[in-house]
C-alpha cells in the first residue's frame, strides 16, 4: 500500500476554491488554512467582488478560465450568492473545521478514499466493486459505466424485444451525451449549500446529484 496524497476539504460552500487555494500558496497567511480560505471567499461574496474570488483560484485553474469569463459566470450566479453566505453562516460546530481525507493505491490500480472521523480514518469510497462517487463527475462516469453495462440478455426475461431495442438505443445515446457534457468544466453547477449538483447534457436534459454520507448519488434523471 502506498500513500498517494492527503487532501483537506471543508464541507458545503467553496470546496473547489479551498482545495485549489491551498495549492496556490495564497499570499495572506489567513488563507493558508481551509477555514481562512472559506472566510476569504465569503468576504468576496459579501463585497460582490469577483476579482477577489478569482485570486483564490490556483494558477492552473486560472489558466483554464480567464478573468472575464469568471466575471461573467459570477454575474450569472449572483442570485445564489445570498444562499451561499447563509450556508456559511449556518455551519454548526461539527462542520466549521476541515475534514482531513486521504487516498491510497493498491494492487491492480484500486484507489481507496478515506476520511478522518471521531472513530479514526474510515473508507468512504473506492472499495473493489464499488463505483467511485466521491464527486459529481465521478458519479456521472459511474452512471455512464452502468448504462453501458446493460445488455439485452439481462432484459430479455422482463421486456419485449421492441422495447429492449428502443431502450437500448436511448441508454447508449444518454451515455454518449453525458460523456460529452463532462468535457465542459462548467457543465456541473452546485446549489447554494453545496449539497446538490446539476449536470446539463444532451440539449436540455438534466441529472441531479445529492451529497450523502456514502458519496454523491443520482436523485433525478431527465
From TrEMBL:
Organism domain of life: Bacteria
Name of the protein in question: Lipoprotein
Organism: Plesiocystis pacifica SIR-1
Top-level taxonomy: Bacteria, Pseudomonadati, Myxococcota, Polyangia, Nannocystales
Amino acid at each position: 500500500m502506498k500513500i498517494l496524497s492527503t487532501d483537506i476539504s471543508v464541507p458545503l460552500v467553496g470546496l473547489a476554491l479551498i482545495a485549489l487555494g491551498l495549492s496556490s500558496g495564497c499570499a495572506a497567511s489567513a488563507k493558508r488554512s481551509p477555514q481562512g480560505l472559506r472566510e476569504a471567499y465569503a468576504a468576496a461574496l459579501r463585497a460582490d467582488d469577483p476579482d477577489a474570488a478569482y485570486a483564490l483560484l490556483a494558477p492552473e485553474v486560472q489558466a483554464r478560465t480567464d478573468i472575464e469569463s469568471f466575471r461573467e459566470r459570477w454575474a450569472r450566479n449572483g442570485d445564489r450568492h445570498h444562499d451561499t453566505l447563509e450556508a456559511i453562516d449556518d455551519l454548526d460546530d461539527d462542520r466549521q473545521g476541515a475534514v482531513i481525507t486521504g487516498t491510497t493505491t493498491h494492487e491492480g490500480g484500486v484507489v481507496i478514499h478515506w476520511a478522518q472521523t471521531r472513530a479514526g480514518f474510515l473508507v468512504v469510497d473506492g472499495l473493489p466493486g464499488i463505483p467511485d462517487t466521491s464527486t459529481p463527475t465521478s458519479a456521472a462516469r459511474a452512471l455512464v459505466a452502468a448504462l453501458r453495462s446493460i445488455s439485452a440478455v439481462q432484459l430479455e426475461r422482463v421486456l419485449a424485444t421492441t422495447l429492449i431495442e428502443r431502450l437500448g438505443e436511448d441508454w447508449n445515446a444518454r451515455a454518449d451525451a453525458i460523456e460529452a457534457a463532462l468535457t465542459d468544466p462548467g457543465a456541473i453547477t452546485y446549489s447554494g449549500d453545496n449539497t446538490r449538483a446539476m449536470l446539463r447534457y444532451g440539449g436540455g436534459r438534466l441529472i441531479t446529484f445529492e451529497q450523502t454520507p456514502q458519496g454523491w448519488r443520482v436523485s433525478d434523471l431527465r
